[in-house]
Amino acid sequence: MSKITKKDWRVSVLACGVAACFATTAVADEGEDGHGDEEHYDIGAYNDNGKVTIGGWDHDTESLEVANLRLFEAHFGEDPDFPNAIDEPGVGGAAADMGFDLGSTLRMNMLSGARVWNGSGFVATSTLMSVDYGPGSMNSNGGGFLDFSVTEDYDLHPIFSIDSAAASGSYLLEFTMAMDGLQTSDSFWIVFNFGMDDEDFEATVEWAESNIVPVPGVLAIFTVAGASLAGRRRRNG
């Protein structure tokens, strides 16, 4: 998968064919640890012609690796001391690159209701899942929101948690991202592995990519080329 850097994003989107664009925006390669690369991306919201749009931000490279990424992964239990909590994916970016004003606020909205894999799809579950950041909290029972302040270079990590009594499996939460003065983003999703075999879990992620995440239309693909962050550079480089 070719990463989309700040410098060549506009060129790569205009040059790629529709099929290649679909592959870039909807599906990521498998990582070295066997997990899909989505788990390594922070949630990178950006201003795309007046609409908040979600992509995959890599804080290590300080670049938006994937445009229009709508599905992320997380794995509970990576820290054995906190088996039912994880602080990935984070919310990351740089104000200048994302087309946001310094000091503006990103609002992450959780839609109520968690879903769990039942062997053939994701269905509603009463299992409680929560997301906390600072004094703010939201959960799958009632939804809610968390606010994140946009700075020159931000790398913010809310804590996702699941009821410790939950059955092992693959769980799904749905979110949107909003900012005053901009159109709210389309839904994006995080799939959580809670004690499930990695290979079986990846199969649920692939199912979600094919059956839950809408395939972007041709117009949406080429709208990216006009995003306000295209051609912009943070600071001097």
Short description:
By secondary structure, the chain is an alpha+beta fold. It has helices at 9-15, 18-26, 95-98, 198-211, 218-223, and strands at residues 42-48, 51-58, 63-66, 71-75, 85-86, 91-93, 105-110, 114-117, 122-125, 129-133, 136-139, 144-149, 154-156, 159-162, 169-178, 188-194. Helices cover 17% and strands 35% of the residues.
Task: Describe the protein in words.
- With 237 residues, the chain is an alpha+beta fold.
- The protein has one domain (9-226).
- The chain contains five helices and 16 strands.
- Strand 8 and strand 9 (122-125) form a beta hairpin.
Descriptors:
237 residues, alpha+beta, 7-stranded mixed β-sheet, 4-stranded antiparallel β-sheet, 5 helices, 17% helix, 35% strand, disordered N terminus, disordered C terminus
| Tertiary shape | globular
Rg, Cα atoms, Å = 17 Å
The biggest beta sheet reads:
7 strands, mixed
For the record, give the distance between the C-alpha atoms at the N and C termini, rounded to a whole number: 24 Å
Number of helices: 5
Quantity of strands, as a count: 16
SSE ordering: HHEEEEEEHEEEEEEEEEEHH
Strand content: 25-35%
Oligomer: single chain
Helix content: 10-25%
Name the average pLDDT. 80
Total individual domains: 1
Q: Low-confidence runs (pLDDT<50, min 5 residues)?
A: 1-39, 217-237
* Structural class assignment: alpha+beta
